[in-house]
Amino acid sequence: MDTATLPAMTLVGDLEALLGEARVKSKPLELRLYDKDAGVERGSASAVVFPKTSQEVAAIVKLCRSHDAKIVARGAGTGLSGGAVPTHGDSVIVSLMKMNEIHEVDAEGPTAWVGPGVINLDLSDHTQHLGLHYAPDPSSQSVCTIGGNVGTNAGGPHCLAEGTTVAHILGLEFVAADGEILTVGGAAPDPIGLDLRGVLVGSEGTLGIVTRILVKLTPNAPDSRTLLMAFPDVLGAAKTVSDTIAAGLIPAAMEMMDRPMVVAVENFVHAGYPTDAAAVLLVEVAGHASAVAAECEIIANIATEAGASSVRTAHDPIERARLWLGRKSAFGAVAQAAPDYYLHDTVVPRTRLVEVMEKLYEISDRHDIQMLNVFHAGDGNLHPLMAFDAKEPGVMERVMAAGDEIVRLSIEVGGALSGEHGIGLEKKKFMGEVFDEYSLDAQARLREAFDPDGALNPDKVLPQGSRCFDFDFPAAV
Amino acid sequence: MATTSVDQLLEPFLTDSETSPIGAEYVVAPPTLEDAATVLRIASEHGLRTLLAGSGTHQGFGHRLAPDLVLSTKLLNRVVTYEPEDLTVVVESGMTLAELDALLAERRQTAALPEQSGSATVGGVVAAGVSGWQRLGYGPIRDRMLEAKLVTGDGRIVTGGGRVVKNVSGYDIPRLVTGSLGSLGLVGAVCLKLWPQPAYAGSIAVADAGEARQRAYRPRAIIETNRGTTVYVTGTAAYVEGQVRDLHGTVTPGLQWPDPLGATYEFSLRVPAALTPHAVDKVRDLGRGVQFQAAHGVGEVRLAANDLDLRGLVGLRSWAESVSGAVVTVRAPDAAYDVFDPWGTAPPTLELQRRVKRAFDPAGVVNPGRLPGGL
Predict the structure, then answer these.
(1) How many angstroms separate the CA atoms of A169 and A192, rounded?
(2) Rounded distance, CA A329 to CA A263, Å?
């Protein structure tokens, strides 16, 4: 067998020999489904494979390496920043969707070992009877995978009180770039040696392929209430957010929607949101029965003081679900309003929210783009959403230009490039505006320590040329 | 010749050697991060084994090191920025916890760092990865550090993370340096997440730790010692009162922490959180001279004694390691480190860890050999 002359063909053959033909897809039409994520960029690959075990992933990595092919790990493909887009035509996409087993739930821990292909919401459904759930809840939680969540350090409304994915990952088994299966962390606190868990979480498949995940489970709150508050201006809503947190209360979630978004949502699901308000704040207070009512009262007073025109409290599950329905239907509502949308994800210091919102409207007006906002106000995580029709000539250029300005605005006010979606392909051009050359070089060195030959998900996260300094000193013995 | 040149190069940063108990040839206290970078560059160029030192609180962690150079952070003690409204503060690593607490107290805020280590430095706490009593409530320190400035072993100033509470921008260097014991470089400055001081706080003495863990709702801590168990709660008056009712305990206002374990030997036993009661039983079996403080819900038991048969710890360690935990030396006489490895069995990712260290400290000069496996 001459592997040197026909590497791609032989690789597919080798993969088929390993997994069987049914778990290797290589026809152009089949590949078309896997060459992009939920973002805008498209790539190309030579095969998609569907391993069922860590050992199969390890064997796939070794095969790909022996054929010099790049390896792109993929969950459900709901990412928005191009993190799962294959940038090399000879790439092999490793879909982890068949590794969807919940291996072990320890109700006492409470923890669970899960496969990377487990759907986020399925885990919470599976542990519901134990009074437990998996806290990170990205909007796509009914379809996205926990492996993908690990890749992007996914967030969600309830990360305000509970922290993003990284705070819920206790241990990881992963296949390293050389095909070795390694485990980091575990259920005991503070693993000895360098703690590599945090580096793997949010690494977007560039440091290893995660094959088993030990997650922390969270006890369900015994009581919760939802408040819906309407404000005549964004300022009042933002002040309510800041003052609540300054009062020492950390609600389970604090979500803000601006008027364009409220109108879109109301037209779509009729959740009963006040469409005349400039901003609507949805606050969930969860906790011990003795505390929830008192905390709701404090927050309602803060809102009234900040000029809220109405405050509604939902006690029962049906009314609460109705109020949340609006928030959860936001992206569907936008799809009704315009055929295409582009969703951004940046973080700004909470104290700059009002100023940033004003500038956002200025940017969208100037580029003549319809903008709607729905976001995690409690942690300053903005999600400006531009709705448009891609068939309109020149609109894509305007959307991209406005998007760049939005990201730069966040950098200017001391914010972050991404709160929960990741850098992927989309934002790597901005990395140099946030980090200096030494800091980018350090990240590139770290990547090199994990993946010296750049085989894993190349071209993502770090811009080209990040690895710009040589080692000046001989390596230690 | 080389020695002369090192003398000259380090001359501007030299300080009195009181801070060095170890008898290193050079003791330096650079006044800025740039100067610290210069010092580490010199150390890398000349192969000087460098011990990074704050106030020494956590120097008991890890393998012993006979350094050529001690780099003290005592002049790196400034507040870089304090944004009370955003609940973030950026400080240099040589600032003591007492200084930080005093600053934050003016605005009734807290970083929830270890409560009884006023002389410890922020950098020391981060480098040792020590989370303090309130870890159950506020999370481990790795989740509270938003940004880190690391002066790498080869003298580059690297920034990782950002100054906002939510961030995925490249690889998470702040979490990597947490608990790295200076093996990648000097943690020069950090941005910490803050909280308002709670309106009400109570320490509730309870009869049974296991029952308390079932009944308490999101307490700050459940600490069991030789003397009994206390549940610590903070929040609104309604919540604190509700907890006192539910736990049927005796409440004392405020957070009344147990006295620090001051003995000659101190170890950290780490097990999965659910096994904390078993860990307490095992520690009790070591004998009556052993004092302990167990953090239920966290899985850490600190144990201490003035006189200890280290052979008893070997059994404890093999049990801990069999449940994916560890027994780690916190403080002991130097001779003990030769008899009882301060970490135990090195992790299986040692080769990868070695490559990561080399990426930040190619000459292998910062705190060499202190981590498990001689990293």
Answers:
(1) 16
(2) 12
Q: Do B241 and A186 touch (CB under 8 A)?
A: no
Report residue A165 as tokens: 């994915």
**CA B170 → CA A283, A428, A431, B27, B107, distances in Å?**
31, 9, 8, 35, 33
Contact status, residue B182 vs residue B153, Cβ threshold 8 Å: no
What is the C-alpha radius of gyration for chain B, rounded to an integer number of angstroms? 21
The H or E element that residue A110 is part of is: none
d(C-alpha B204, C-alpha B244), whole Å: 7
Question: Can you spell out the DSSP letters for B23-92?
Answer: --SEEE--SSHHHHHHHHHHHHHHT--EEEESSSTTTTSSS----SEEEE-TT---EEEEETTTTEEEEE
Among chain B residues, CA nearest to A382: B166
- Asked if A188 lies within 8 A of B271 by C-beta distance, the reply is yes
For chain A, percent helix, then strand, then coil, each to nearest 5?
Answer: 40, 20, 40
Measure the CA–CA gap between A5 and B12, rounded to whole angstroms: 62
**Residues of chain A contacting B198 with CB distance shorter than 8 Å:** 248
Which is nearest to A156 in space by CA: A345, A287, A435? A345
* Maximum pairwise Cα distance, chain B: 74
Q: What pTM value is reported for the model?
A: 0.96
Q: Which residue of chain B comes nearest to A174, CA vs CA?
A: B349
Output the CA torsion A269→A271→A274→A278 (10° steps). -60
Q: What is the mean pLDDT of residues A375-398?
A: 94
A-chain CB neighbours of B169 within 8 Å are 416-418, 423, 431, 434-435
Give the CA-trace dihedral at B61, B63, B65, B69, to 10 degrees: -50
Q: What residue in B sits closest to A206 (Cα-Cα)?
A: B171
Residue B309: band (very low, low, confident or very high) from pLDDT cuts 50, 70, 90: confident
Say yes or no to pLDDT of A8 above 80: no
Are the Cβ atoms of A190 and B129 closer than 8 angstroms? Answer: yes
What residue in A sits closest to B366 (Cα-Cα)? A476
Q: How far apart are CA A127 and CA A109, in angstroms?
A: 13
What's the token pair of residue A288?
Answer: 């011990």
- Please name the residue of chain A whose CA is at the shortest distance from the CA of residue B353: A194
CB contact under 8 A, A349 and B236: no
pLDDT by residue (tens digit) across A82-130? 999 999 999 999 999 999 999 999 999 999 999 999 999 999 999 999 9
> What are the residues whose beta carbons fall under 8 Å from the beta carbon of B109, sequence distance 6 or more?
B84, B87, B194, B195, B196, B197
Please give the DSSP secondary-structure letter assigned to residue B366.
Answer: B
Chain A CB contacts of B167 under 8 Å are 347, 416, 418-419
The Cα–Cα gap between B136 and B153 comes to 33
Q: What are phi and psi of B241, to 5 degrees?
A: -65, -40
* Residue A271, both tokens: 């959740």
Please tell me chain B's helix, strand, coil percentages from 3-state DSSP, rounded to the nearest 5.
30, 25, 40
Q: Give the angle A369-A370-A374 at the CA atoms, nearest 5°.
A: 130
- How far apart CA B210 and CA A107 sit, in angstroms, is 15
Q: Which of B176, B325, B364 sits opposite A199 (nearest CB)?
A: B176
Q: Which of A221-225, A322-326, B353-357 is predicted with the least confidence, judged by mean pLDDT?
A: A322-326
Q: Which residues of B touch A110 (CB under 8 A)?
A: 274
Q: How far apart are CA A93 and CA A77, in angstroms?
A: 11
Asked if the Cβ–Cβ distance from B364 to A472 is below 8 Å, we say: no
Q: Kindly state the helix (H) or strand (E) to which residue B304 belongs, with its residue range.
A: strand B300-305
Name chain B contacts of A291, Cβ cutoff 8 Å. 235-236, 238-239, 242
> What's the complex ipTM?
0.96
Residue A27 to chain B, least CA–CA distance (Å): 34
Q: Distance from B44 to chain A by nearest Cα, in Å?
A: 7
